Amino acid sequence: HNSVAPPPRQIVSSYLIDHPNMVLSAAAALRGMTPHLRRNSAAVLRRRPLSMAMPGVARRIPPPPAVAFPSATRGIPALHSSANAHASVAKWLVGTAGVVVLIVHVGGVTRLTRSGLSMTYWKPTQVLPPITPEEWEAEFDIYKSFPEFQQRRSMDIEEFKSIFYWEWGHRILGRISGVVFVLPAAYFAARGMIPKGYGWRVAGLLGMGAGQGAVGWWMVASGLGNDRRGDKKEIRVSPYRLAVHLSMAFATYTGLVWNGIDLLHGGGSDGGAAARRRYVVYASKLSLEARNAAKKLRGGVIVATVLTAATAASGAFVAGLDAGCAYNTWPDMEDGNFVPENIWDPDLGMLNPFENTATVQFDHRILAYATFLSSVGAAAYGLRRGMISSGAVTPQVAAGITAMGAATTGQAALGIATLLNYVPIGMAAGHQMGSLVVLTSGLYTVQALRYGGPAALRAAAAGPMGAGRTATMARTILGKP
Q: CA-based diameter of the chain, in Å?
């Protein structure tokens, strides 16, 4: 407001150093300075790279050090940390996710051993299997009246028992998971321990788990109808319903893991506000280049995680059509061709990706290649020189992308070995579990990269600048190294 502008050093001292939150006021005061200084200071305030604003000074000023928040320096914060009031709820969610993993594994073996149609009814209240010889004979007689037995007439009661136990075990594990989820949920709700904003998430997970039982029976029923008696090929459940059943299991697992890790990072405190502030504060300490690198890395990890889920869903169609038992060569599919000749059946039309064995396996391979390249590419990008030292990649993120790249590589190798060996049960079951390992590493890494998400970056760019960047701005305007 004076006719003579005050010295630049005085302005920097009073506005930028003593009051770093008043950047706009400082910009207004700089109007009386020389055009050259106004141009340089305005460029810095617009967050242009220092190399564009003042090349000579930018080379002499080191970037501000990255300041990590607690969860950025470890893997998953201590489960028993007294600082996390919601650790018990987080452990419950992650523990339930572990039960879901067991259910998926047993379900996979049930499918591989052709055991899924051994229980021809759905009685949610039934817990025990047949006990006495008479009960087993009665159960076997029921099975004999359904279409699948017409193709397995050589089966004796001992063979029937072996397939029955797999299906029974799969169903019992589903009910156990319900108890593991519902009882603690009721306890936490009664004690008011479910964090703000998580009640609807818990209710949604409960609904998904309850609906999964009905979807499972809907899938089994597709192989029991009298319309299947004329089938020439081995009777199997509908691959569409199998894909829905498996996808719901993966979606439930994803919800449990995501929310569990979120709470371990303090996401439930103050409705998640405290955790979000930590991400914003951390992002505000990063240079513009480091923020952009974190943003790109997070986007790449999200793409890899989505591709993992899509590949797993396509695997359900491979299993439903026994497509893994065809085209057992690699990298070609038949006679040196990477694309099989009968990849398109005109009679199937748009259903080829779901009902044509050649197309189903080809699609699964392409999705697997895309998952591998995106996962390994994200790991290579995140672990390149300078990413950790700049703060763009925290130790937690480094561990996540390393695990994701390694898990995807192992999963790809196991998938190829399973194909070349004509789908042995052990390898095929391990391959299905491998998809959950890859998915888990992706979810973990996306959570760890929350500071590179749109919300955190927008808030960091719009909010008050951290002390490191303020000091850098001050040195830049003053022309001091």
A: 107
pLDDT reported for residue 18: 41
Three-class DSSP category at 33: coil
Using only C-alpha atoms, what is the Rg of the chain? 29
The pLDDT score that the predictor gives to residue 86 is 83
Tell me: pLDDT of 322 over 50: yes
Provide the residue count of the chain: 481
DSSP symbols for 360-411: HHHHHHHHHHHHHHHHHHHHHHHTSTTTTTTTSS-HHHHHHHHHHHHHHHHH
**41-50, 179-188, 233-242: range with lowest mean pLDDT:** 41-50
pTM for the model stands at 0.80
265 and 71 in contact (C-beta within 8 Å)?
Answer: yes
Residues 6+ apart with CB under 8 A from 251: 208
pLDDT band, very low/low/confident/very high, at 229 (cuts 50, 70, 90): low
Smallest Cα–Cα separation from 238: which of 361, 111, 119?
A: 111
Task: Say how far residue 167 (Cα) sits from the centre of its chain.
Answer: 28
Pairwise CA distance, residues 461 & 465, whole Å: 8
Tell me if residue 337 falls in helix, strand or coil.
Answer: strand
Contact 367, 307 (CB under 8 A): yes
Write the CA distances from 15 to 3, 12, 21, 27, integer angstroms: 19, 6, 8, 9
SS3 75: coil
In this predicted structure, what is the pLDDT of residue 277? 81
- Neighbouring-strand partners of residue 334: 337
Give yes or no for a contact between 397 and 448, defined as CB atoms under 8 angstroms apart: yes
Q: Which residues contact 418 (CB under 8 A, 6 or more apart)?
A: 324, 424, 427, 428, 430, 431
Q: Which residue has 């319903």 as its token pair? A: 241
